[in-house]
Amino acid sequence: MRIRNIVILTGAGISAESGLATFRGSDGLWEGHRVEDVATPGAFVADPHLVHSFYDARRAQLAEVEPNKAHEALARLDAEWDGELLIVTQNVDDLHERAGAKRLLHMHGELKSGLCLGCGERSPVEGALLDYPPCPHCEQKMLRPDIVWFGEIPYEMERIETALMRADLFVSIGTSGAVYPAAGFVQSAKYRGARTIELNLEPSQGSIFFDESRMGPAGELVPALVEELLADRA
Questions:
Q1: Is the dihedral angle over the CA atoms 199, 163, 24, 16 positive or is it negative?
Q2: Is 191 exposed, middle or buried (0-12, 13-18, 19+ CB in 10 A)?
Q3: Which of 78, 113, 134, 170 could form a disulfide with 146 if both were Cys (CB 3.0 to 4.6 A apart)?
C-alpha cells in the first residue's frame, strides 16, 4: 500500500518524556488537583483564582522543558514529507512548535493562548492570567485559559475528519485511547481503509482497533517510524 496522506495523533505520552506531567495520574489527579476542579467551565466560574493559578503554573513549567527526540522526528517528517500530513495533538504545550512542526493542530487548545469571554477573540499569553491582563482586542479583563475543558467541543473537528477521510496512514502516539472524540479517530481512519499504527509505552484502551501496536518510549519508536516512512516513500 502506497502511503501518501498521513494523520498523526499525539497525546500526553509524547510530552511526558520531556518532563511534563501526563494529564491524569493513576490516582485520578492532575498535579495534585481533581480534574473537575481545574478543567471544567463550572470550575472556572466557581474559583477562577484556582484555575488561573493552575494553568499559570503549567505555562511557567513549559519554560523548563525542551522538545524530545519524538517531537524532533515528527518535525523532520513535517519538513520532508511531500504528501498531506496533519499532526493533531491533544497536548496543550508548545513542544511540537518548538521542535519545528508546522502542519499542526491543537484540538484541546493551547497553554500559551487566552480566550476572551467578552469578545470571543484569542490572543497569545506569555505571563500570568492571574494578573487579569486586558484582552488586546477589546480591553476587557475577561481572559480565560484557551483550553478545551470537559464538556466543551474540541477545536477544528471538521478539518480533522476531512484529513482522516483522506488518510492512507493513521498513527497514534502516547495516548490512552480513553478520551473521545480522539479515541475514535482510529476507527474512522480504519473504516476508510487507512493503515493504523499505535506507538505507546503500554497497550491502550483502543489497541484492539490498530493494525499494529509498537510498545516502548516515544523517543525511540517515533524516530524509527519516521525513518521507515521517509525510506519507503520512493
A1: positive
A2: exposed
A3: 113
Residue 182 phi, psi (nearest 5):
-60, -35
- Give this prediction's pTM: 0.94
Q: CA-CA distances (angstroms) from residue 144 to 46, 48, 69, 116, 191?
A: 13, 9, 32, 6, 38
Would residue 137 show up in a list of annotated catalytic residues for this protein? Answer: no
Spatial distance between the Cα atoms of 221 and 225, rounded to a whole number of angstroms:
6
pLDDT per residue as tens digits for the range 98-126: 999 999 999 999 999 999 999 999 999 98
> Rounded to whole angstroms, how far apart are CA atoms 165 and 17?
31
Amino acid type, 103: R
Report residue 184 as a C-alpha cell: 475514535
Q: Which of 30, 60, 62 is nearest to 130 (CA)?
A: 60
State the amino acid at position 35 in one-letter form.
V
